[in-house]
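MODEL INPUT / OUTPUT PAIR
PAIR INDEX: 1
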Amino acid sequence: MSLFQEIEGLRGENLSSAILAHILLRSPELRDRLIHLISKKSPVGPIYSRYHFSVRREVPIRIGESDDETGSPGGRLDLLIETDNAIIGIENKFFAPFQQDQPKKYLEPLEVYADALGKLHNTSHQAFLVIMAPALRATEINDRLKEQGINRQAVLVTWQEVLNNIRPTADASTLDRFLLRELDQYARTQLGELLELERIVPHLFRDWEPRGTAHHRQFMDSVIWPLLHESVKSGNGYSHSSGKNFYGWYLFPGGLHPDDNARESIRIWLGFVRFNESPPELMLTIQPRNRSRELIKNLKYKHSTDWSNSDCYTVAADPIENGDTLQAWAKALEPVNELLGRLAGNGGAE
């Protein structure tokens, strides 16, 4: 499969994981550098890849049984790496929140797989998790690993460390140089290092043109999207929506489009809206169905002007931080993600 087939339609963590996997398969030297970095931080001892290395993306995880065909769905690991002596699951996070039981739920299936592989090849494999995330999330992630009791089986490797360790060598091919440059620029944009939010944010709440300005589109795609709950990031989990006075997305947690089950579904829209001639605002609009009003009444957002027969809420970053950091927007979106997570658990209905 070509790189373009692999990355078609991908964005955020999925896109960066796909490019990284492609680079690791192409370049033994860059692969060795990444394994060396992981080995230094490994909670299970040194990692070797002299004789065997493989990497797979979007690996389905099943919970509760040792047979891949049984057990309940447990999500997907972004990357699964096999080496001479280790099975390494990599959970790639920029600023998106963890889902329930992440990352702990991945450990048992990894250990089962490592044991089965060891029996097949008469070898010994250690299984552990790597959380690949921005350095700014180090405290949050290390605290979560301790809270889940897996800090001896999981480790944080920051994206900054990864990017600094897989720089092109003097004899790197033109294609490898291109891929590394694109990965570096894309990842650093997702990390907020190239976004210059302090320049963009003031214009988001002042400037407008039909269907939003380029700044609104960039902000929604590069800032808001990576922060949203994973349940809406599949191909049928969202759809773009824009018009003269709005730009944003319909969100379908669990992948259930309202048209599929109109009576049970909740219609959610997130994006920038301009009411009359007032400055644009980032709004969350919800058309509740059945018992969902009880679910959304504790959203912790300021209820705003009704729009299209929806409950409408203003989404704002912490004014203390002026909304010019990714952490501020991640915090602002916490209630949205809590709602999406609850709805995803019910198939998009409530």
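PAIR INDEX: 2
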Amino acid sequence: MDIILKTLTCGSFIGMIHFIIVGILYQNPIVAKIYKDTSSHPGVKKWDNKLKYIISMFLGTQLEVYIISVGFIFLISILGKTITNTLILGFIISGIRVYPRFWNMWIQSSYPNKLLIIEFINGTIGSFVIVFGLYLLPI
């Protein structure tokens, strides 16, 4: 029961922080321009309703944060809550979360390479935001 409560409370808080930081990463002028320039590419999904897109993105991301939170809370209780273990978990979670998506999209889709690189970088940063955010919370 304790891990469920920790996951819900810590995961909710970190999920909001993660969503804000990743939003800033994607909406900075350089990245936003790259996305705008590729918006007509056939590999890029079109969203007519921006609010629906943002809500869908938040809910999907939040579920991902809850899953990562469970893994982090469980593993850090075994490994010990140190900065080194958190860094190791950050690399592991980034690798599990970001690399397979990047690789599959690169070899199986026509998604623009520039956007794949942005997804890879921002996904890695986002993973570390989640892991280090959880590290900083009283778990």
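PAIR 2 NOTE: Residues 2-38+47-136 form one domain.
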